[in-house]
Amino acid sequence: MSSIELRQVTKRFGDTLIVDSIDLTIEDGSFTVLLGPSGCGKTTTLNMISGLEEVSSGEILFDGKEVQDVPPHKRDVAMVFQSYALYPNRSVRENISFALKLRKLPAADIAERVAEVAEMLDIAKLLDRKPRQLSGGQQQRVALARAIVRRPNVFLLDEPLSNLDAKLRADMRISLRELQRQLGGTFVYVTHDQGEAMSMADQVVVMNGGVVQQEAPPLDLYRRPANRFVAGFVGTPGMNFVPGSLDGGGSFAHGDWTVPIGWPGAARDDVTLGVRPEDVTLEPAGPGAPGRVRLIERLGVEAIVVASFPSGDVISRADPDIELDADTPVAMRIRPGKAHLFDGEAGDALA
Ligand code: ATP
């Protein structure tokens, strides 16, 4: 097994700073997800860990040993990509066993290892087919099998499920977690899909603009986002944000509209209130109420209610049978202790 550490790792392409002095510790045997919007530097970071990209500066350590100058094939890592990158003219069996043949393992050992991973990934019946005779999900399983069969200490996965449909993606999330438990290796997984990150990770590293925004287990990230970016990126529907001020008496104000949030801090201007849709209730109120219902989506398990307020739209998750109609005047209530506050300028969470 392998722990991975990044110390002040920086990557420039020409004059452009892509990854900016990242410090990161990835625990041995953990499932760590690098999460962030397109272009934030996740893939570049993963490629520096594998050795496919050189670092511009900084150190990468595997089990405490520097590897930034070690070529990829000597780092004992396996990569799985979004595009499966299978050899089209070789059978599934040949695709999986190729790396072992290069290592000149005895034929009997190769056959045994291929059979073992094929069983694990439920592709034993496909071993004699060519990649073009497989569905996308099956091809991705073959790509995983090819990585696993080498028994590396570190698995690096770059959006491996993006080409699969929603149902297969959900199944593969479960398979991947089970696989990791079985194999016990260190998994580093890149995605822009927060649902994928939340469902699979032990530890999520949120990146934006080449900088790590927060590193935390999924629920901590959800409950205690370090800043506005993380708060807005994690969770669907996203957190509601309202700019305004604190009156020092436990209420938040946007213009002359106030809402009690029980915040114990002193009065100050220039803050942003953040509240998750499940922590907002929209209640019918008199015609002078600040909000108006715009839209109700009844989704079976819940209803999503969108109301317009002087500060902008507010989204609430509600009971699927909630008695509200479009245009009903509503007031907003926030569940006690559930308001988040961010510095209006820097966006950092206020304690
Ligand atoms: P995505 O989810 O879209 O793949 P990402 O977070 O993985 O995004 P990267 O692929 O790491 O982002 O790319 C980060 C930035 O670096 C992008 O703006 C990209 O255009 C740029 N970039 C990546 N590789 C190179 C390269 N070889 N030369 C120049 N710029 C590059």
TrEMBL record:
<dbReference type="InterPro" id="IPR008995">
    <property type="entry name" value="Mo/tungstate-bd_C_term_dom"/>
</dbReference>
<dbReference type="InterPro" id="IPR047641">
    <property type="entry name" value="ABC_transpr_MalK/UgpC-like"/>
</dbReference>
<keyword id="KW-0547">Nucleotide-binding</keyword>
<dbReference type="GO" id="GO:0005524">
    <property type="term" value="F:ATP binding"/>
</dbReference>
<keyword id="KW-0067">ATP-binding</keyword>
<feature type="domain" description="ABC transporter">
    <location>
        <begin position="4"/>
        <end position="234"/>
    </location>
</feature>
<keyword id="KW-0472">Membrane</keyword>
<keyword id="KW-1003">Cell membrane</keyword>
<protein>
    <submittedName>
        <fullName>ABC transporter ATP-binding protein</fullName>
    </submittedName>
</protein>
<dbReference type="InterPro" id="IPR013611">
    <property type="entry name" value="Transp-assoc_OB_typ2"/>
</dbReference>
<keyword id="KW-1278">Translocase</keyword>
<dbReference type="InterPro" id="IPR027417">
    <property type="entry name" value="P-loop_NTPase"/>
</dbReference>
<dbReference type="InterPro" id="IPR012340">
    <property type="entry name" value="NA-bd_OB-fold"/>
</dbReference>
<keyword id="KW-0813">Transport</keyword>
<dbReference type="Pfam" id="PF00005">
    <property type="entry name" value="ABC_tran"/>
</dbReference>
<dbReference type="InterPro" id="IPR003593">
    <property type="entry name" value="AAA+_ATPase"/>
</dbReference>
<dbReference type="InterPro" id="IPR003439">
    <property type="entry name" value="ABC_transporter-like_ATP-bd"/>
</dbReference>
<dbReference type="Pfam" id="PF08402">
    <property type="entry name" value="TOBE_2"/>
</dbReference>
<dbReference type="InterPro" id="IPR017871">
    <property type="entry name" value="ABC_transporter-like_CS"/>
</dbReference>
